[in-house]
Design brief:
The chain is 70% helix and 0% strand. It is an all-alpha fold. It has one domain (8-99).
């Protein structure tokens, strides 16, 4: 099939932007990367599956978004658990080192 008879401006009108114009290209890429991260690690984070559109809507709602709150809390919980594990391993190592002196 040849598109030689189709006017050049016809193709431009068929293409829809991926993200709302007020979000901007760079922020759109950040939203997509954030969604990909949440989707990949949703089991670790304990998040339910959600769509890119749901995340875009959440970003639009800002601080009143339940989804953004859930993502934030989930990440804080994982960070806290990691810090507690790191602290516990240091404490165990220090105890082992002190046993050598006792």
């Amino acid at each position: 099939m040849s598109f030689s008879n189709v006017p050049d401006n016809h193709h431009a009108s068929c293409v829809q932007p991926a993200f709302p114009s007020e979000l901007g290209e760079e922020s759109g890429a950040d939203v997509l990367a954030t969604w990909a991260f949440c989707h990949s690690f949703r089991d670790v984070l304990g998040l339910p599956p959600f769509s890119v559109d749901a995340l875009l809507a959440a970003v639009g709602r800002g601080s009143t978004s339940a989804l953004l709150g859930a993502v934030h809390i989930a990440m804080l919980r994982v960070l806290q658990a990691d810090m507690e594990d790191a602290h516990a391993s240091v404490v165990l190592q220090v105890r082992r080192e002190w046993k050598c002196f006792l």
